[in-house]
Amino acid sequence: MSILDAKIPEGPLAEKWTNHKNNINLVNPANKRNIDVIVIGTGLAGGSAAATLAELGYNVKTFCYQDSPRRAHSIAAQGGINASKNYQGDGDSNYRLFYDTVKGGDYRSREANVYRLAEVSANIIDQCVAQGVPFAREYGGLLDNRSFGGVLVSRTFYAKGQTGQQLLLGAYSAMNRQINRGKIQPFNRHEMLDIVKVDGKARGIIARDLVTGKIERHSAHAVVLASGGYGNVFFLSTNAMGSNVTAAWKAHRRGAFMANPCYTQIHPTCIPVSGDHQSKLTLMSESLRNDGRIWVPKKKEDAEAIRAGKKKPTELSEDERDYYLERRYPAFGNLVPRDVASRAAKERCDAGFGVNKTGEAVYLDFASAINRYGKEQANILDINNPSEEKIYELGAAVIENKYGNLFQMYEKIVDQNPYKTPMMIYPAVHYTMGGIWVDYNLMTTVEGLYATGEANFSDHGANRLGASALMQGLADGYFVLPYTIGDYLAKDIRTGKIPTDTPEFDQVEKDVKERINKLMSASGQHSVDYYHKKLGKIMWDKCGMSRNAKGLTEAIEEIAALRKDFWANVKVPGTADGLNQELEKAGRVADFLELGELFAKDALNRNESAGGHYREESVEQSGEQKGEALRDDENFKYVAAWEYKGEPKDAVLHKEDLVFENIELKTRSYK
């Protein structure tokens, strides 16, 4: 085991990034024309990085498995993007955003990275407005803000419930400008299957054309991974079904350390599971918790009657409802962080107060907000003594203006009108805070290999605050990587084009083809989905919302056995030399079967509760915080970075000690 060097600059926190930029190496514009960069993934992190690097003059190749960068999973982000502009005048600042993010991550993130994130956040909004992103505006024309979980200010910029889509279109338009200039060469419907290293440096990739099946070699002076998270290791998640860990895992196998893989975010506002037929889950934006109140019946008999269809939620009076977040966390109420809200919902449902047929749902109710907004609008319109119907009509119009597409989506899926009856929600796997370890420059432990956005581990600690994913992806792509990658590439101005007809490319291509042939030649007993579902059940049952040593030990053994069976008995129809989506899935599930075991190993090693990682053995036993998650700063105040050594069980732990000089380490409380 070694201690990792994050290369954090010296000096005061607020000056680190500025001083670092002033002192790192630059590449002059003429030399940038001779340097190639590969970007894997074209979501917000990859798209913004590719557009900015190309604008600077680098030659960029982008790779995505979708038919267009517009289909990246970033498009699914709904509620907003954080930035510390303090438009509301409610006390926000760079320091407040920094503090909330570190506290929200349960003090398991790197101070310097998070402060830099807060520092550049305001620039992101300006950049996106300049691109034409249609953020919501107040009556006076200023950009509007709403609040998200884990904070006491309004700092979230939004475009109704489709913020991710609008931001992605902004990045995509910036990419298209560079594609038209010839500075970006896009490779859509291509999947990166391995990293090629030359003299220890990342110098290219092996990719598969998903339409023709052709295996291709692509070289560059640096490779950037912006391939998203690995939530689909659970099979059922809010991620797009194609989201996978393959790019990151292949980098891990080639020497990039995987950091904190057990840190997974469970999102509290997801449409509940409806049956075994489902292949993914649908998220309802956390922004709904601004106006929706979360509750379950106070009496078990009422919950049982609702589950049996004998009672409707609207028949319960206020006194018969338990607004449990408002009761348990009065300071933050329904806007507690995601991990806290998720565990509270599970606790109520486990205790027998769940409200759907399976007993795994709670209510998200907008009746109070509709009534409040209706009265407000009646005052604005000078309507005296408005009827209840008029108040409802006016209030529902306000809610529709703020969240209309989300309500429409819910009604389409559940076949219930959320204006008239409360939404049903339950926690689900959403985002992964763990990922490839990177230093302050976003470089992995492989020289010349960078990781940005959700693919890296760097900014969110053990729990991500809502609206911070878009912020990190765009911060990394627009404002961090374009500076830091130049420091490395400055050494390559005389290197020349990286050739692909070398022994290193030969060997990695051979490895890729052998792996594909092995998948195609298995005996064919079970489908890929059969194994993915089995893995997902192990992960959810034993590595999900709560974890314990017994379950994690069992998970490690069960996943290893399942992986062995997969390689012997998976059935991949068709051929390898053409379009074959089952082969694509098989390769991704093979990687999930390795990641899943490392995930469980990391969770077993971390015998503390921190953020989304809730160990049943580590709970507050007394005092005001009784029953809440208990952190162990003495033994686990570090980033766990795992080095690949063959089987996941043999992975070697390296630690990056976390130093807190600007924020006091204390028990996280939202009460």
From TrEMBL:
The keyword Flavoprotein applies. Keywords: Flavoprotein, Oxidoreductase. Residues 610-630 are annotated as: Disordered. Its cofactor is FAD. The keyword Oxidoreductase applies. NCBIfam families: PRK07573.1, sdhA_Bsu. This is Fumarate reductase/succinate dehydrogenase flavoprotein subunit. The lineage of its organism: Bacteria, Pseudomonadati, Bacteroidota, Flavobacteriia, Flavobacteriales.
